[in-house]
Design brief:
single chain; Methane Monooxygenase Hydroxylase, Chain G, domain 1
């Protein structure tokens, strides 16, 4: 075999390997996109109180990501790439939001097939999603539940703030945790304001009763 033939053969082998990798990547991107869509729909269903639909959509997202993982099996260069990591973070957020809102046990990373970095980022996002639930409770006058949800947000933040590794390892967890802190402080302010107003109203009502009783 001449040098030109040798180089051509090597080029063909590399081209064939890259074609397989390209096809695997295309499947992974498509499956990741569908998983993100199902996860977002699951979170919306959770906020509407449609928990059965939320769980079904989260399971659907899980199936999509199983397909993505299967597609890139044997292509280690594609593992942990952007679209798949983002999809797994969204999947974790969907499952964890559902569990936190329903007061259920949080599914561990291996149960939903995600790596620790995606799981922790999803946990931070799920805690941020609780703000909406807290505000709904405040509007409904359900202060006890609002306070319980706030405590869950605080517990998540207390854990995440201790995870001190480079962003390359955690998938940008520090930024996600900082965003959660901002949401947490706004929510704490809303809850405190509402609770103070409720106590003030109770005091005014009680004083009104005393005045009315004395006048009688």
């Amino acid at each position: 075999m001449g040098r030109a033939d040798e180089i051509a053969a090597l080029g063909e082998t590399a081209r064939a390997a890259l074609e397989l990798e390209h096809r695997a990547r295309e499947v992974m991107i498509g499956a990741s996109r569908r998983a993100i869509q199902s996860s977002a729909a699951s979170i919306r269903a959770t906020h509407r109180g449609e928990f059965d639909a939320s769980r079904r959509l989260a399971e659907e997202a899980l199936d999509h990501l199983a397909g993505a993982d299967e597609a890139i099996d044997g292509h280690p260069v594609l593992v942990g790439r952007g679209p798949l990591h983002d999809a797994k973070k969204e999947l974790a957020e969907a499952w964890l939001t559902l569990a936190l809102v329903q007061g259920e046990e949080l599914p561990p990373p291996e149960r939903i097939g995600v790596e620790p970095s995606a799981y922790l980022n999803g946990l931070a996002e799920a805690a941020s999603e609780l703000r909406r639930e807290v505000l709904d409770c405040l509007r409904a006058g359900n202060l006890d539940r609002a306070e319980a949800l706030m405590v869950a947000m605080d517990d998540v933040y207390a854990v995440l703030v201790t995870v001190d590794y480079p962003d390359a390892v955690t998938g940008g967890l520090r930024r996600t945790t900082d965003a959660l802190r901002a949401v947490l402080e706004r929510t704490r302010g809303d809850l405190t304001t509402t609770m103070v107003a409720a106590r003030l109203q109770e005091a005014i009502t009680a004083a009104g009763r005393q005045v009315g009783g004395g006048a009688g």
